[in-house]
Amino acid sequence: MSDAESPLSIFESYEHDFQDLIREIKSKLDGEGSNASSGSRLATEQRKAALRRVELELDEADDLLSQMQLTLQAIPKSIRTPYTTRHSNAKSELTRCKNRSRELHAAVSRSEVLGTSGGFGFGGSKGASSDSPYGNERQRLLAGTETLDDGSRRLMDSQRIALETEEQGADILRNLRVQREQIENSRNMLNTADASIGRASGTLKKMIQQMYRQRVVISLIVVFLVAVVILILWFKLFRSR
């Protein structure tokens, strides 16, 4: 796997896209999603349209977070901890944006019920959005198509990483199987060698016992021959007198 396609680089790419998307979401929540002209029903509709776009972007951010989680599993455990922390921080940031989006949705609902349209942003500012909730549908469809294509590309990248990881795991299993066979063969050879050594040890013991018996026999023969020689000499010396 090349450096450009490594799990680390893919994770950082997802993280970069996630941070860019979060900035856009915060910008909408601080601006279009929270500001409206006082007494304007159109402004309220514009705010609702902005919040609907925020919901779509939150779904996309959620998808990026899932891709980060999937890529995180392919990162070696020895260096995974800081990336896990970065993923947790991104998840917390997305949760805060979701909570803020729900608050603004509730504020818009209250505004419709009460017939008011005050500012509900992070800074409490008031202003009108220029986007129409019913206009530019073609751009929104194109943006949705681009988002789907980008998600498909990221999914293919994740599938490729999963396949490569699976191939590496299969190679490791094959190597482990070969090593196991080698260990079993070595164990069988050791058992055979141990049996051979046992037989050789028994043979050596028998040879040593036989050698001791031969020594005893030879010693007896020598003693007998010495006794015979002494007896012959005695007869010759004392009989000759």
How many independent structural domains? 2
Question: In percent terms, what proportion of residues is strand?
Answer: under 5%
CATH superfamily of the largest domain: t-snare proteins
* Broad structural category: mainly alpha
Descriptive labels:
241 residues; mainly alpha; Methane Monooxygenase Hydroxylase, Chain G, domain 1; 2 domains; 4 helices; 80% helix; rod-shaped; membrane; transmembrane; SNARE; transmembrane helix; t-SNARE coiled-coil homology domain-containing protein
Present the secondary structure layout.
Layout: H1 7-30, H2 41-72, H3 81-114, H4 137-240
Written account of the structure:
The chain is mainly alpha-helical and 241 residues long. The chain folds into two domains: 3-135, t-snare proteins (Methane Monooxygenase Hydroxylase, Chain G, domain 1, Up-down Bundle); 136-241. The protein has helices at residues 7-30, 41-72, 81-114, 137-240. It is rod-shaped. Residues 116-135 have low confidence and may be disordered.
